[in-house]
Automatic annotation (TrEMBL):
Listed PROSITE patterns: HTH_ARSR_2
UniProt xrefs under SMART domains: HTH_ARSR (SM00418), LMWPc (SM00226)
Lineage: Bacteria, Bacillati, Actinomycetota, Actinomycetes, Micrococcales
UniProt source species: Promicromonospora umidemergens
Location of the HTH arsR-type domain: 19-119
Pfam families hit by this protein: HTH_5, LMWPc, Phosphatase-like_N
Protein name: HTH arsR-type domain-containing protein
Length: 356
């Protein structure tokens, strides 16, 4: 084959895999519009507003620039189609355009935290694959975990325990991150899944209410909400958290708050290794829950009959300033207490204002 022919083939292959020039031009214009720190902050404030909309006056509190400058930035975002607006009285209200809601959620919940971590000097997750390759003798360890769970949960067939353990291990490896504690995490996650599966099949008239908190990465909002619920409720409520696309680790800002709670039962504690870790969303977790609280994960969570669903629009602590993280924590605290008061009998709800 000639060199010219080889080059032509490479060019054809590149063209087949690259986005088209018109699409690239349109995408570049949109990315250019949001490639400004203040516009990104405005976009995140609008997207996570409890009502899904806000005014230029409210957004002006994010910066010391003049109101006309704020309006200019909003116009840039509106001109590329990211925002829509309407006037009510003397105020103009801005919201994310319906066609962009999913994309903005992905930007703020997945791309932005990863970019922030890299720029902050976080370790890349590329080393994960080499570490997994080093776990050449993982099969016996997983077999021991499965056998131990089969002995403990006699209502679950042994072959099912082995399936759940293997499936849990695979799901956790896909998150990336360090493989150092992968087997203990697998044991904890598999045990939780078996408990949820048995609970979902139980038909007893009295059972402890179970709440499942779900966000995209299970590294911020859902972890914090679960920890707060466990902190206030203790064993009066079974608490779970999960992510539709779990990250490799809990966000540093959230990990600090979880530690400040000082509650050894917070966030699915088992030991120091598995106390806080992102985990995938499973159907069994949804089936076992009485209440499912979603935070930014869209339609990823299955909707099953007989469940109570709530969608909490809350900012992402991974992208927030220290003051913003504190505000998110306070907002979740109030929402958790309100949900807890609705779940527990009146005499128990009186105790939810403080630690147990």
């Amino acid at each position: 084959m000639s060199i010219q022919g080889s080059s032509a083939e490479r060019a054809t292959s590149a063209e087949a895999h690259a986005i088209g020039p018109d699409a690239a031009a349109g995408l570049a214009a949109t990315l250019k519009a949001i490639a400004d720190p203040l516009r990104l902050r405005m976009l995140s404030a609008i997207a996570t507003s409890p009502t899904g909309e806000t005014t230029a006056g409210e957004l002006a509190t994010l910066t010391a620039v003049s109101q006309p400058t704020v309006s200019h930035h909003l116009k840039v975002l509106r001109d590329v189609g990211l925002l829509t607006s309407d006037r009510r009285g003397t105020w103009v209200w801005y919201r994310v355009a319906p066609a962009y809601r999913g994309a903005v959620t992905t930007l703020l919940d997945r791309f932005a935290p990863a970019a922030v971590e890299v720029h902050a000097g976080g370790a890349p997750t590329g080393a994960w694959h080499g570490e997994v390759a080093g776990l050449s003798n993982v099969d016996p360890a997983l077999d021991r975990v499965a056998a131990s769970l089969a002995e403990r949960f006699t209502g679950t067939p042994e072959r099912e325990c082995f399936r759940v353990v293997r499936e849990s291990y695979t799901a956790l490896t896909r998150r990336g991150g360090s493989a150092a504690h992968l087997v203990p995490l697998t044991e904890h996650f598999a045990r939780q899944r078996i408990i949820d599966a048995e609970r979902a099949q139980a038909t007893g008239p009295e059972r402890t209410p179970q709440v499942l908190f779900v966000c995209v990465a299970n590294a911020g909002r859902s972890q914090l909400a679960a920890a707060l619920m466990q902190h206030y409720a203790g064993d009066r409520v079974v608490v779970r958290s999960a992510g539709s696309a779990p990250a490799s680790d809990v966000h540093a800002a959230v990990r600090g708050i979880l530690g400040e709670l000082g509650d050894t039962a917070a966030a699915d504690v088992v030991d120091d290794v598995t106390r806080f870790y992102p985990k995938p969303l499973t159907d069994d977790a949804v089936r076992a829950a009485d209440v499912v609280v979603t935070m930014g994960c869209g339609d990823a969570c299955p909707v099953l009959p007989g469940k109570r669903y709530e969608d909490w629009i809350v900012g992402d602590p991974a992208l927030a300033s220290p003051a913003g993280v504190a505000a998110i924590r306070d907002e979740l605290d109030g929402r958790v207490r309100g949900l807890l008061a609705a779940l527990l009998p009146a005499e128990d709800a009186l105790t939810t204002g403080g630690t147990r």
